[in-house]
Amino acid sequence: MAISHTSHRQQLLLLCFLVHLIIPIQLCYSNNTYSNQTATPATISCRPDQASALLRLGHSFSSTNDSSCTLASWRAGTNCCGWEGVACTDGRVTTLDLGGCGLESAGFHPALFNLTSLRYLDLSENSFNESELPAVGFERLTELTHLNLSYSDFIGTIPDGIRRLNKLVYLDFSNWIYLVEGDNDYFLPLGEGRWPVIEPDIGSLVANLSNLKELHLGTVDLSGNGAAWCSAFANSTPQLQVLSLPNTNLNAPICGSLSRVLSLTKVNLKYNKVHGQIPESFADLPSLSVLRLAYNLLEGPFPMRIFQNKNLTAVDISYNFKVSGFLPNFSSDSIMTELLCSNTNFSGPILRSISNLKSLKSLGIASTNYHQELPFSIGELRSLTTLQVSGAGIVGEMPSWVANLTNLENLQFSNCGVSGQVPPFIGNLKKLSTLKFYACNFSGQVPPHLFNLTNLGVINFHSNSFIGTIELSSFFKLPNLYRLNLSNNKLSVVDGKYNSSWESIDNFDTLCLASCNISKLPDILRYMHSIEVLDLSNNHIHGTVPQWAWDNWIDLLILMNISHNQFSSSIRYGSVISANMFVIDISYNLFEGPIPIPGPQTQLFDCSNNQFSSIPFNFGSKLDSISLLMASENKLSGEIPPSLCEAAGLNLLDFSNNGLSGSIPFCLMEDMSGLNVLNLRGNQLHGRLPDSLNQDCAFGALDFSDNWIEGQLPRSLVACQDLEVFDIGNNHIDDTFPCWMSKLPKLQVLVLKSNKFVGNVGPSIFGDKNSCEFVKLRIFDLSSNNFSGLLQNNWFRTMKSMMTKAVNETLVMENQYDLLGQTYQFTAAITYKGSDVTFSKILRTIVVIDVSDNELYGAIPQSIGDLILLSAVNMSHNSLTGLIPSQLGMLHQLESLDLSSNYLSGEIPQALASLDFLSMLNLSYNKLEGRIPESPHFLTFSNLSFLGNIGLCGLEVSKACNMSPDMVLHQSNKPLPITG
Predict the structure, then answer these.
(1) What residues contact residue 266 under an 8 Å CB cut-off, 6+ apart?
(2) What InterPro entries does its record include (predicted)?
(3) What predicted TM-score, i.e. pTM, was given to this entire model?
């Protein structure tokens, strides 16, 4: 990654993409009991072998302009026990502390392992230039109690030798954390490859480390450990005090047994995918002082007993949107300095007793459904440096007591119900460096009082109702500003004049101006030589991108979004857009020519909805890091280049609605083990589908509809156990009904329409019924084929997902990817309410059976009435006979019913009149007779719903019904009218 670092303790780097941000940060505990050792003056001369080893080690290092240590004292012939960073006992080196020196080395020099008396080794914050951790050597350092290799640019697996160092008290392999902050500040890793050090078996790592008191593994990849990560500590580290595992790719619950480690004082699991509930037993840790669980996927109630721990100084559970709870009544003897519950599902009243937290420095509160204004008692917390407020339940205007918090450095109101203008007193909070008012209801002008805040580095005002016209240049007068986000308001942003005296413009790294009514590319960008994130999406910028912009961006930008504009012309053929961009979105413009090649760092590339005409043959060979590739709705022609199969990390490929021809490269389906979505809809592809899919197939959605594909469906698809959507509609498939696809346990959408399928639908009459149960199916489209035979009554009862709603499912069928919280919504093209409809997103409320335009015969199965979630049924253009089942009246969610062009007879069931949501009804061209059900709802259907049924009568067909004998008798008993 080509982010430049001036030092290893740099400020956070905030990036945004569609209001997305990226942050490399260092997480470690400041009160490090085991890292305060310093070299002491030498009183005994060091042994020659020790000096020799140190000299060889020293020659492997080189200093830079940023190095804080030069090792100038490391000279032959002098006492090595007096050298910089060295301490000895009896002439043997016991301490080597080069932490924070900023030295560089090509790799770990084996001479170090000759210092077998070492107890304290700190090589942190030096660069070993992505060299491998040595596989052997550490097992020789049997006296080590302290090992710190953090922030040193190592890669590879933690060496086995470290597992044997049973005297270790402190172990630190932490590394830089590159994170993405989504629309709701939800942090996620910046994609694969950002975990340079791997530990696949943490249980083995700590099995012999019974003396360990501190373990820091930030950004070490622990994903291979699964649920076993947690019990390892309960079983092996009884003295552990600090457990720091931020951004370790953990995707498992927190086990209750972790609380058996009663010595724990600090737990940090931030920035992971830890899910499930927070164990109640955390409240039983007697010495717990710091609990950091922010930015995970935790849910359920927060154990309120944890707040009763007298030693508690910091709790951070923010950005766990499904964690519920409320703030307790705080006592005046609390020593808490940090309480962050913002962007959770916390609710309930925020009590005045919060002012008892006299030591509080950071406060984050949330209220999702308990409507309240913030209590004035918060204004008594004069020591606050951070205040975060979130939740739709927080209403009213910004409280006036905020003006009393003059020590505030970070102020955030987000995703809340606070409204009105930003008050003028904001300009008096002189220490503010970060100001975030986003996704609330703020209105009025962008407050001019901001420009009094000369310490401001970050302004984020996205997604409010700010109005007016504002000059971009006015913000550059703030000398320390380096990030600005004004996206998605009602603003009009104009350029303004450039002033060479601006101090901030050279350090500006983030500019987000989506939906700001901008009509031309801001000229100020020409002078922003540090810009790394640029979002100009959803504006009215037209014309070509000037050459100076491409020249500036190719080496600087990490994240670019210029989508939904009117940029035109071609991008230089064969050129790489940027060597360093992680995210490129140029969709919804007028770019033409060959698709430009993203850089080797690019993980998301969206060039859909343009006029690109071809794909370079070597395109895929350049996609070293690509995860999401979208190029739909262009004018692409030619064949899909096989080089795409070289993009081994590809999760999503969408080339839909182009003019691609040729066959689908077999490797695209058979060799891409991580590919989750493959959408090739609406092209001119032909040939057969590959039929040697691997057992580790990861497909969740396959869409080949509207092509010229022939042959049979590949039986090896049964390997794709995560497949939810399969659409092969409008092709030339010649096959029988795929009962074998019922072995796909997650299949919800099956579209086989407009092909050449033949034979019975459902299981063979003589076959095993259990081999054809589609229990998850929601959309089932077999229309326009050559299916024949009976529809089996019992078979429809196996479609359980059409009967009962599943709990905890999202409304929309979609995939969510770690990268920027990016979602991809599945699509489907079906006939709905009599029209061909392409659903750009599939709602789970859309439940459809379409078997129209086939050769089916016999009765309509009564069991369809059990599928009470059905929203559309189409059985038209078959040879169905018998009565319309009255059980259809049980389908109270039904919006569309088409039984036309069959041989149905008898009366229309009166029960259909109770279907209040039914808006499309077609019973035409059958042999129906009798009275059309009388109801106000049925009167809304025209005679087109009943054509070709000469036996029907009623107002809809303008044919009076003959009265039955009972009706005649009833009318004859009426009293005669009295006349004059």
Answers:
(1) 29, 241, 242, 243, 244, 288, 289, 290
(2) Leu-rich_rpt, Leu-rich_rpt_typical-subtyp, LRR_dom_sf, LRR_N_plant-typ, LRR_R13L4/SHOC2-like
(3) 0.84
